[in-house]
Write a structure and sequence with these properties.
Elements lengths: L3 H13 L2 H8 L3 H15 L4 E2 L6 E2 L1 H29 L3 E7 L5 H14 L3 E7 L5 H7 L4 E4 L8 E16 L9 E2 L8 E4 L8 H7 L8 E4 L3 H9 L5 E4 H9 L3 E6 L4 E10 L6 H17 L11
Parallel strand pairs: 3-4, 3-5, 7-11, 8-9
Antiparallel strand pairs: 1-2, 5-12, 6-10, 6-11, 6-12
Helix pairs in contact: 1-2, 1-4, 2-3, 5-10
């Protein structure tokens, strides 16, 4: 009567807070998810959730099954990992380079979890700002590159992690603080604070300013996100950052955020691996762990639509 997919569905509903978002996480349509839930309720003869509440509220029966899911699914995941290690051998190498200064927020917990599950895999991490990481990937010096700038290369496979919105951090007393969005030309008289990397690797240029043929009044750099936020709060400029990287500073009331353009600038973060390596068990497991932790801890991100 009960299947693992039912438990995964209930856990996704609880984690997401709604059927719509749960369906996105499970990569199914909302109607398919609703049908599965109704079918389970029919089999059991019990209602499992109180509909039309947000977040979704579970009935007593639903809460019992949710508790079971929280207990069983981690054990299933652990056993699956162990079986993968038995199948592929428990050793290997995963050398990762990141092109994203803000990614440490979610990457460190993912690496900690990965080390627990794959203790014999040699793990290494570097920042990809002083060299060409994709060249190093195809050459075999690296095994994964975290990037938002995919390059068409048949030797590289891009595994999507999540979509995020690039937003502009502005001082709370700025005239822009109450705006819903700004156009590229508005930055022509502003100081843009960026990470110290080439502009070709900065989304604010490649996805917002350059297509409009615009440039900021001036550019200054800061090594760390907290430094950038403090400079913005002090009125020394503005900074384009991922929405999830700004969440804690918005909650603290240090800065405000404004959309870049009326529709916003949405980017996808990928893990690039060599073509064929996407089937390696420990790389698959790392992707599953990283994606799960991202949606557990990061605000404002979206699931990447995948082909049916």
């Amino acid at each position: 009567m009960l299947e693992l997919r039912h438990l995964r569905t209930l856990q996704a509903i609880d984690d997401a807070g709604s059927l719509v978002e749960a369906a996105e996480r499970l990569h199914v349509t909302q109607s398919a998810l609703s049908h599965q839930l109704k079918d389970l309720e029919h089999r059991l003869g019990l209602e499992l959730i109180v509909r039309r509440t947000r977040p979704v509220r579970f009935t007593t029966a639903g809460a019992r099954l949710l508790a079971l899911a929280r207990q069983i699914l981690p054990l299933v995941k652990k056993t699956e990992t162990e079986l993968k290690r038995l199948s592929a051998g428990d050793s290997g190498r995963l050398h990762i380079a990141i092109e994203c200064h803000s990614c440490f927020q979610w990457l460190m917990p993912a690496l900690d979890r990965f080390r627990e599950d794959w203790p014999e895999v040699e793990l290494d991490l570097s920042a990809a700002f002083g060299f060409e990481p994709l060249t190093a990937l195809t050459r075999g010096d690296l095994d994964m590159v975290v990037t938002s700038d995919p390059v068409d290369d048949p030797a590289v496979c891009y595994l999507p992690l999540f979509r995020y919105e690039l937003v502009l951090a502005v001082a709370r007393d700025s005239e822009w603080a109450a705006r819903r969005f700004i156009e590229p030309g508005a930055l022509a008289e502003q100081t843009l604070i960026t990470y110290p990397v080439e502009r070709e690797r900065l989304d604010v240029f490649t996805a917002f300013l350059d297509p409009a043929g615009m440039a900021p009044g001036s550019v200054r750099t800061a090594e760390l996100t907290p430094m950038m936020v403090q400079l913005v709060a002090a009125g020394r400029g503005v900074a384009a950052l991922p929405n999830w990287a700004l969440t804690e500073y918005l909650d603290l009331g240090l800065v405000n955020s404004v959309r870049l353009g009326e529709e916003g600038v949405w980017r996808t973060l990928y893990a690039a691996v060599r073509q064929g390596d996407q089937a390696v068990p420990f790389i698959q497991d790392f992707m599953e762990t990283a994606e799960a932790l991202c949606f557990e801890h990061l605000s404002g991100i979206r699931q990447v639509s995948r082909p049916a």
